[in-house]
Amino acid sequence: MFYRPADGHGLPHNPFNALITPRPIAWVSTRDSEGRENLAPYSFFNAVAYTPPQVMFTNTGAKSDREGGKDSVSIIRETGVFCINIVSRALIDAMNASAEPLPREVDEFTHAGLERAECTSIPCSRVAAAPAALECRVTQIVPLLGRDNSMVIGEVTGIYIDDACLIDGRFAYETFTPLGRLGYHDYAYVTEPFTLNRPGQT
User: Fold this and answer.
1) Does 79 map to a domain?
2) Is residue 137 part of a domain?
3) Is the peptide bond before 143 cis (omega within 30 degrees of 0)?
4) CB under 8 Å to 44, separation ≥6 — which residues?
5) Is residue 44 in some structural domain?
6) For the chain, what is the domain count?
7) Is residue 202 part of a domain?
8) Which structural domain, as residue segments, surrounds residue 67?
9) Structure pTM?
């Protein structure tokens, strides 16, 4: 089949997200100027540069009690910092609990039963049980085509890695089993990583 998105797809469910898979999940933690904390997952997320290291995630919705996006983006506009927590298989239920559309004053760490740890390079909490976390300072918030769509780009100013996830100096996926987002309500675990050298590499 072929379809133009503007004309509709004619299927029972939108296939767009299912075509771009698996996608990493940015589990974004923030703290507002009054000390209230927020935690929410975003599945439009990736690294965008090595030097300096930079990442992005995209907000694609709004809340009735916030202007300019969901809680995460509103707080990032206010404070200029955020932390991306890497989601492991063990944390899938807590991650899903934090996706619930809660009032702005509700702390998702508490709601999801998560222990928090203080970030080192920014004033923010991270998920203590996460295998890794990227502490970021925002560099751009880019408006995107469409209502309530915006891309947050940040420079990574600090990186936490759980020592238990390091084997022979390598961040070992098998120690925590990464989680990826597929389409619809579907997810996937990375359980069989393999090495493939590019042509000319040894």
Assistant:
1) yes
2) yes
3) no
4) 23, 57, 58, 60
5) yes
6) 1
7) no
8) 5-189
9) 0.93
Q: CATH code at 109?
A: 2.30.110.10
In Å, how far from its chain's centre is CA 174? Answer: 20
In the numeric block, the tokens 């509709």 are attached to 8
Q: Is 93 helix (H, G, I), strand (E, B) or coil?
A: helix
> What would the two tokens of residue 43 be?
């599945």
Asked if 41 and 25 count as a contact pair (C-beta separation under 8 A), the reply is yes
Residues 31 and 126: their CA atoms lie apart, in Å, by: 10
| Contact (CB, 8 A) for 116 and 127 | yes
> Rounded distance, CA 29 to CA 105, Å?
14
pLDDT digits (tens, 9 = 90+) for 8-32: 999 999 999 999 999 999 999 999 9
Read off the pLDDT of residues 107-139 as tens digits, 9 standing for 90 and up.
999 999 999 999 999 999 999 999 999 999 999
DSSP per-residue letters across 177-191: -BEEE-STT-EEE--
